[in-house]
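Need Flap endonuclease 1's 3D structure for a figure. Predict it.
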Amino acid sequence: MGVDLGDLLKKKPVELSDLSSKVIAIDAYNTLYQFLSIIRQRDGTPLKDSKGNVTSHLSGLLYRMSSLMEAGIKPVFVFDGKPPEMKSSTIEKRVEARENAKIKWTQAQEAGLAEEAYKYAQASSRVDATIVEDSRKLLDAMGIPFVDAPSEGEAQAAYMVSRGDADYTGSQDYDSLLFGAPRVVRNLTVSGKRKVPRKNLYVDVKPEIMQLEETLNGLGISREQLIDIALCVGTDYNPGLANIGPKKALKLVKEHGGIKEVLARTGNEIPGLADIKEFFMNPPVTKDYALRWKKPKTDSVLQLLCDEHDFSRERVTKALEKLEASSGAGQRTLDSWF
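Structure prediction for Flap endonuclease 1:
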């Protein structure tokens, strides 16, 4: 998902303690996909309750967010609104890819290929209306604010950071930088140990931050040129140019000045180029939001998770205690947030 510019960007690993007292505007859909992809049983099956409802996302929200808040981090979730029409092709391809992954998951299971099955199971993850609704209910019960974006959640989150209402955008994708987010943190919801595909090897995954100004200065380009590079590589709104990766795109944009000149020299075209660039430079956002963290509604959390979705009452209670406890010297208790 999003544009692949990782090879060009400078990332600085940090500890959760470095983010204490920081407000992080989290791309909700991106994070829910992460939870649905990662929080699974060994055969790839997502966590489910006794009625067959998927609960991986609820588990991720409860346990990961309680740990982040215990560390002094103040999360706010930003939900996507209506996607732009120029994203329709990408959305269709993603739906098709998930359906194909679901078929391959079943085939791999039948063939006894456990690792292949798990990989395809992850790729089949899908965020539907029920998952979004339950996620919003849980966030509200946990006292975590959320914002509804008019369009792309990452664009709204980037605006909130630019405005000073948040300190970082939280997302695995790099699009936040294209939308002008001054600071981005990755791996916020997926840190820990991660298995290297096809190898019996695990690596540590820590949060890492990226700063837009530092990135642009290091590459010797402007934000508009960073968008031009992304357009060469391919974004959610265009397929990109053939055989051009991030490094070659950087070279072309710096050599010729911008995307129009690159297209003229290479004999390529990008349909809707002006509209795509305008969308990145000035995306639709809303100023109509208020961020307030509230004390968790214990009864509501227990009702939703334990009574409706069969979570362990003991484990949920411990997570709720985390939300209300201070996280140690130099870090604020929740009471100081309200």
